[in-house]
Amino acid sequence: MNVGEVGADNRRPTWVDLELDRPNALGLGRAAIELAVRAAHAPPEESVRAFEEELTRGRLTGTLLRAGGRTIGIAFWRSLGRVGLSVGPIAFEPTAATPERYDELLQEIGQRVGTVTFVAGPLLGLEAPAEARVMEGAGFARYGRMEMELRFPRAPLTTPDPPTNASVRTVGRDDASALVELHARAYRGRFDRYLFLEEEDEREDARVLVHGILEGRWGEFAPEGSRGLERERRLVAATLVARRPRGPMILDVMVDPELRGRGLGRAVLSETVRALAGSGAEVVHLNVTEGNTPALRLYRELGFVVTMGPTHDWYSTRRIPVPPQVGEAPGGGAGPAGSGR
Ligand SMILES: CC(C)(COP(=O)(O)OP(=O)(O)OC[C@H]1O[C@@H](n2cnc3c(N)ncnc32)[C@H](O)[C@@H]1OP(=O)(O)O)[C@@H](O)C(=O)NCCC(=O)NCCS
Q1: Could you count the other beta carbons within 10 Å of the beta carbon of residue 15?
Q2: What pLDDT is attached to residue 10?
Q3: 78 CA to middle of ligand 1, Å?
Q4: For ligand 1, mutation pick of 159, 195, 209, 297 (most atoms within 8 Å of CB)
């Protein structure tokens, strides 16, 4: 890239539809893919493949910033339906990566395409304070996601007894409606509900997500690791697991909000870990939102360690009414705000 040339032509740039065969677009596209790979909780080949597949299927689209016959910026986004748009990765040529450009990009997408709800950070080329000024000025706050893993045989192979009156069992497709109910209650008012939101209606949203897990949307459903705790014939805690190329991934850990802080989460997750170790898995993964203290403490206690992240992303505080941080006080259930999966 010729920085001088870009700087000179940079005055009246225009945003145009994404066309990767434009001069320099592919190069910037590659830079954007590299950013996406760095941010992804997956090995590079897997994330590049996922990125390309989303692009081919039209789930991911974007825009180019053109100036003087050159492409000087590229931004991708995906639609999250009613939730709005998740914007990123974004790559600018070094001289074009200014706070004003990012600001302009967000406004442009907001006006032309739809509400911007999430933005993938960090914003390339900006120092942290400048990035915070742009994003906070546009009504965004930071959040992060982490991947954690537990390698066997480091796992505690003894499972705590389920709390009194609770029995543990495998859960699967036959439990769909109880799982939907539990999911809706567990994530009510939580940041994570918005992270994965598919439908505004809470129950419908839980239905889409739980059925998505059971039907293999995020990897083949793994009954060998999915467990539920029942009390008085009611499902009060559950884990849902998928088979992924790197080993099983725990997609959901949920406890009825009225019964939190009584060991149910630990019991059901320990049982999942024990079952997965027994099924021959060498490692198990999960993702968690930074600030979800109850979940993080539980995972650390069971031996999970952070292997990737936290990511450095932004959410619109106008679109998402709760912060990711969950109250610190143990017992008594949810804190004032939520997070999760
Ligand atoms: C995370 C969750 C499953 C924990 O379930 P739980 O039954 O309340 O947890 P337990 O009573 O078994 O507690 C086990 C450990 O978790 C941690 N923990 C539980 N509640 C906590 C809280 N309010 N604050 C801090 N740590 C907490 C503690 O380390 C606790 O061990 P301790 O009792 O020895 O201190 C539950 O809060 C939940 O359903 N949250 C909403 C959904 C969600 O966020 N899931 C996780 C997605 S990644």
Answers
A1: 17
A2: 47
A3: 32
A4: 297
Quick check: 309 pLDDT over 90? no
Rounded to an integer, what distance in angstroms lies between the CA atom of residue 236 and that of residue 23? 57
DSSP strand pairing (234-244 vs 227-231): antiparallel
Ligand 1 atom 36 nearest Cα: 255
Residue 9 confidence (pLDDT) = 46
Q: How confident is the model at residue 20, as a pLDDT?
A: 74
Name the pTM for this structure.
0.85
Which residue type occupies 28? L
Tell me which range, 13-22, 90-99, 221-230, is most confidently predicted by mean pLDDT: 221-230
Q: CA 84, CA 77: separation in Å to the nearest integer?
A: 10
* Residue 37: strand, helix, or coil: helix
Residue nearest to ligand 1 atom 19, measured at CA: 294
Residue where the block lists tokens 């990897």 = 219
Q: Looking at 29-33, 36-40, 74-78, 256-260, which range is the least confident one? A: 36-40
Question: 341 CB under 6 A from ligand 1?
Answer: yes
297 lines ligand 1 (CB under 6 A): yes
Ligand 1 pocket member 330 (CB < 6 A): yes
Whether 186 is in the pocket of ligand 1, judged by its Cβ within 6 Å, is yes
Report CA-CA distances (Å) from 279 to 152, 167, 222, 272, 284. 11, 21, 11, 10, 12
Best-predicted range by mean pLDDT among 78-82, 90-94, 98-102, 163-167? 98-102
| CB of 301 sitting under 6 A from ligand 1 | yes
